[in-house]
Design brief:
Blueprint (H helix, E strand, L loop, with lengths): L32 H14 L3 H25 L6 H5 L1 H9 L3 E5 L5 H12 L5 E6 L2 H14 L4 E4 L10 E7 L10 H11 E14 L3 H17 L4 H11 L6 E2 H11 L6 E7 L2 E7 L2
Helix pairs in contact: 2-5, 7-10
């Protein structure tokens, strides 16, 4: 994981946004400056196995990019001495061809970790983070600067972006905030922009089609949040604020959306599942 030096230490504020009585019950959740300032703490205390799952996603993408680079180089035979002498140049050129998008990148944690892993593997890639919250992008940019990471962060609506051809897309806890009627179109844009063999990693909060099991999953999740220091008032207030803002689908529904967007069922796998959270990887073949 990333380590801070004394010169680049980044303070992390505690999430107590919903502990204040002055917060209106009618106020809806939004990714403003207040949320952005405590978002890293919110992620770690609200998403089960957040750091483990982030590391899992980074590991799969690093494997994918490394294997892609090696395969790409193997397909370029070196016919003469001058080509052999410039092998390092060819390798560097191919390494920079891989483009990776993180859609809904928030404060940039995934791309920061990925940049570190790829750099350690001797692989370069174009890392692009997109989020429609200017506060999130500002925080992500500051963190990248502090770590000396070469990442481009862009404030934009993910539904409106014209994506360039990319090797990987990441959309962790993003689809659930997109209006249901726009989700297939969003995933179709990703599918069309993916290179052949490219992958999409998708993480979501999920529901169960079984009402009883869904209620039990929610109750278990609330107990998880309570163990992480959230009060019943905070849990209830945030749930109300997220109503009709975060609209989760079941695992089966998310896989169906991916298939509708163009992915084949045999090219979709579940990487991680914990009660009502899950991560899916899909490859375009």
């Amino acid at each position: 994981m990333l380590k801070n030096t004394s010169r680049t230490k980044i303070t992390q504020k505690k999430d107590n946004l919903f502990s204040h009585k002055k917060i209106s019950k009618k106020a809806k959740f939004c990714f403003d400056e207040r949320v952005a300032s405590v978002f890293d703490d919110m992620l770690e205390r609200s998403i089960p196995y957040y750091k483990d799952n982030l590391a899992l996603c980074v590991d799969f993408i690093t494997q994918h990019i490394t294997q892609y680079t090696t395969k790409n180089l193997a397909q370029k035979p070196l016919k003469n001495t001058s080509q052999k002498l410039s092998q390092k140049h060819l390798q560097a050129k191919n390494q920079t061809n891989a483009r990776i998008y993180d859609i809904g990148c928030s404060t940039g944690n995934t791309l920061l970790e990925l940049e570190s892993r790829l750099k350690a593997s001797g692989v370069k890639a174009k890392l692009i983070g997109i989020d429609n919250s200017s506060a999130m992008i500002e925080n992500a940019t500051l963190k990248a600067k502090a770590y000396g990471a070469d990442i481009c962060f862009v404030c934009a609506d993910c539904n409106e972006v014209e994506y360039k051809k990319a090797r990987c897309f990441i959309a962790n806890y993003t689809l659930q905030f997109i209006r249901p009627l726009k989700r297939v179109a969003f995933l179709k844009k990703i599918y069309d922009a993916l290179e052949s063999g490219g992958v999409l990693i998708l993480s979501e909060k999920m529901t169960s089609p079984n009402a009883m099991l869904d209620a039990q999953m929610i109750e278990h999740y609330h107990r998880y949040k309570a163990k992480n220091g959230y009060t019943k008032t905070e849990i209830s207030a945030k749930r109300e604020a997220l109503e009709n803002v975060l609209v989760p689908y079941s695992l089966q529904e998310n896989i169906a959306l991916l298939c509708e967007a163009g992915f084949y069922i045999n090219d979709i796998e579940v990487l991680f599942k914990w009660v009502n959270f899950g991560t899916i990887i899909a490859q375009k073949v």
